[in-house]
Structure formats: C-alpha cells, structure tokens
Specification:
Layout lengths: L20 E13 L6 H19 L6 H10 L6 H4 L9 E15 L5 E13 L10 E4 L4 E2 L4 E2 L1 E5 L4 E7 L4 E5 L15 E3 L8 E2 L8 E10 L9 E2 L5 E3 L1 H9 L6 E10 L1
Parallel strand pairs: 5-15
Antiparallel strand pairs: 1-3, 2-3, 4-7, 6-11, 7-10, 8-9, 8-12, 9-14, 12-15, 13-14
Helix pairs in contact: 1-2
Length: 270
C-alpha cells in the first residue's frame, strides 16, 4: 500500500527511551548448518537469531523462551504475522536493545556439514513491568479488502493520552507512514476519536497495488504513553521513509511493555 503522497522527514528527534535495567552480554554464539535450500546469507541470519536467543539466556531470561525463538526467526524473511497476531508479545520479559557482530566464521562440523557461526556482544533490556491492561486503542474503519484506487480512511480512539507511529510492512522491507511531512506527530487524547487522514489536505489515502495480483498490506500501529519517535529510516528516491522489520522490532521492544500497546492490521487491495 502506497498512499499517493510523498513522505519526507519533517524533523529529527532525539530518541528518549525509558530507563530500564540493561545487562551487557559478551560472546553469545549461534550456529547454522548450510544444507538443502539454506544458502550462506540465510544461514548467517539464522545463526544471528540463535546468538540473540543465547544472549537473552545468558542475561537470565528463561521464561517463555520459545516466544523469543519465534520472534527472532520472524525477522528472517519478515515472517512477523505469527508474532504480532499471537499472544506471545505479552510473554516477552526482555529484549536485545542492540548488538555487535564480533565474528562470523565458516567451518565444518563432525558430520562434514558446512556451517556458519556468529558471535555477538549485546545489550539486553530486562523488563520490570508488565503490559498495562488499561491502555487500549480502538482502530475502526479499516476493511478487509479494497479495490485498486479506493481510499483508505480510519479512526483511532485511545483509553489514555498517547502518541502513535504507524509502519507499513512489505515482503522484504518496511516503511514509516505516520508521522510524515503532511501529518505531524500529535498527542492523542484519552477517549477522543481522531480520524485519518489527519491533514485537511487529504480526503483519504489512495490505495494502489504494484502488481496485477491481489496485494496484502500489513500495518503495525504502535501507541506509546510518551513521545518516542522512530528515527531509524532513510528516504528513498520515491520519498518513502524506508526501514527494516528488524530495526522496528528493536525499537519496539526497547520500550517498557507498560508504556506501549501495538496492533497489527491486514487488508488486501484487489
């Protein structure tokens, strides 16, 4: 989904994350065998996912470890529906805030299989709070399907004062679609409905698909109690604010779960 408007950076903000316990982990390893349809790049990504998982274990995160496994595997090929359309987000008790790949080495194991082993140093956030059950947002007006050229309009109504970032998730990358040049970041008031587009210059977001086949669109709405801008994106030649699902995931999970709520919405353009 690409609304017909050009998205530019309105301004640059300083990321202001909540203070949380951070544990520094060094030497977390992950290994993946190169076999079958798994090529070298995918093997490295899988090894990195395992290294992140092991860094969390080394930091003392042991509960619901299968949820983290699913999360990091979802970053490979953007298989994020399983994450955001399940209850696993409420189970996550920590996150990899950032990491550095120290080594990425090839080798042959005892069974004569080629493998890639990745070693990382990572800063692990340990959550001290659980999600706030009173912090909810109603998102209304998004249909399951639209015709090509039809306009998208919707509304949001939060239970608490909050701020919003919206991401469009594609097959191989992602983009920030709110805030943008025409629609600045605002504070959404508790129990007050806001209709999108916010700009009076827009009558709706015109939906256009890039292929002849039906096109699935995936929007991630992230509401936060404080203003925590997402700044890790670049502007492509079409003016889109381009980013990656891995960077979105890192930003999202760096925010304490009691300070955020997120929703994943899908629709199809026919």
């Amino acid at each position: 989904m690409k609304p017909i408007l050009i998205l530019f950076i309105a301004s640059i903000f300083t990321l202001n994350l909540y203070s949380q316990d951070i544990t520094r982990i060094t030497g977390a390893k992950g290994r993946q065998v190169i076999v079958g349809s798994i090529n070298e790049d995918e093997a490295k990504n899988r090894a990195l996912a395992e290294a992140k998982l092991n860094a969390l274990k080394m930091a003392g995160v042991s509960e619901h470890i299968q949820s983290y496994d699913l999360l990091y595997k979802s970053e490979i090929g953007n298989k994020f529906e399983e994450v955001f359309m399940s209850d696993m987000l409420s189970e996550i008790r920590g996150a990899v805030k950032n990491y550095t790949i120290k080594t990425s080495e090839k080798g042959i194991d005892d069974y004569k299989n080629f493998y890639i082993e990745v070693t990382i140093d990572a800063d692990i956030i340990l959550y001290s709070n659980s999600p706030d059950p009173a912090f909810k947002v109603s998102i209304d007006g998004i249909k399951q399907g639209y015709q090509n050229g039809e306009k998208l309009r919707y509304s949001v109504t939060p239970t608490m004062d909050c701020y919003l970032n919206i991401f469009n998730i594609y097959e191989n990358n992602a983009s920030v679609i709110f805030p943008n040049e025409f629609e600045k970041s605002i504070k959404f008031k508790a129990d007050e409905q806001k209709v999108f587009p916010l700009s009076n210059l827009l009558d709706g977001y015109v939906l256009e698909k890039s292929t002849n086949d039906p096109e699935k669109n995936k929007l991630l709405f992230v509401f936060t109690k404080e203003k925590i801008p997402y700044i890790n994106y670049s502007i492509n030649h079409e003016g889109d604010q381009v980013t990656s699902f891995e960077d979105i995931s890192s930003w999202l999970f760096s925010i304490s779960p009691d300070k955020r709520v997120n929703y994943f919405v899908q629709f199809v353009i026919y």
